[in-house]
Each structure stands twice: as C-alpha cells, then as structure tokens.
Amino acid sequence: MSGYSDYDDSDEYDEELEELKRRRLEELRREAEAKRRQQEEAAKREAEVMAVLRTMLEPDALNRISNLKLVRPELADAAIQAIISLVQAGRLTPPVDDETVKNILIQLDSRSRREYEIKFKRK
User: Fold this and answer.
1) Is residue 59 part of a domain?
2) pLDDT at site 21
3) Domain count, the chain
4) 93 to 35, 63, 85: CA distances (angstroms)
5) pLDDT tens digit string along 44-69?
6) Within a domain: residue 123?
7) In a domain, 121, yes or no
8) Distances (CA, A) of 37 to 12, 16, 19, 30, 42
C-alpha cells in the first residue's frame, strides 16, 4: 500500500471521480443555462427599447444612438433614458430630430467628463 489513497480498490476511486465529474458538469450546464437566459432577457429588453425609440426618433437620430451604442454604450444608455424621460414628461415631442439628440449627448457627455488639472512643480 502506497499511502496516497484511502481506497482499497481503484474502482471506488474511479466511481467517486466520475461522480465528481458528473456533478461539476451538471453545475456548468446550470450556469451556462442561467447565463443564456440572462442574455436572452437582455436582448429582449434591448429590442423593446429600440422599438420604443423607433417611434420617438427620426431615422438619423436613431442611427446616431445605434452607432454610439457600439462605441460608448454607457453614454448611449444615458441618452436613451434621458430621451424616453423627456418624451414621457412632455418636454420633447416625437419624432425627435438628430440635432436634439446631439444636444442631449453634448450635455450628458459634459457632465460625465472630468476636468483634469496638471500642475508642474519647479524645483
């Protein structure tokens, strides 16, 4: 006996190893399924938002938001929420044009940007 295993027989070891593998595989399947469901729900929400935006925005403005989503998704999401809120509050009337979307983006971007000041100390 080598002392490396508490098992008398390698069959018991193999069975336990197979059981551990099976459990791990099942766990990975559950995680993958949960992730897939989350992605499907996110895609569904995104499609619903885009459908609402199609009714609120002119085609050029919608293209601008779609392109921005690829480059700066956080700014695009903030703009989408702002546009929806402004339309629901009656402060914007659909269809919102591209120039209005640009102005909203400029305002949101200026709020999110930080001003950095670099100071040099002379010795």
Assistant:
1) yes
2) 95
3) 1
4) 38, 18, 11
5) 999 999 999 999 999 999 999 999 99
6) no
7) no
8) 38, 32, 27, 11, 9
**What CATH number does the domain containing 56 carry?**
1.10.8.140
Task: Give the orientation angle of helix 73-89 with respect to helix 98-112, to 10 degrees.
Answer: 120
72-86 pLDDT, tens digit per residue, is 999 999 999 999 999
Instruction: Annotate the chain with DSSP letters as a single string.
Output: --SS-S-SSHHHHHHHHHHHHHHHHHHHHHHHHHHHHHHHHHHHHHHHHHHHHHHHB-HHHHHHHHHHHHH-HHHHHHHHHHHHHHHHHTSS-SSBPHHHHHHHHHHHHHHHPPP--------
Q: Which domain holds residue 80?
A: 10-112
| C-alpha distances in Å from residue 11, one per residue of 2, 16, 24, 98 | 16, 9, 20, 71
Answer whether residue 66 is part of any domain: yes
Chain-wide mean pLDDT for the chain? 89
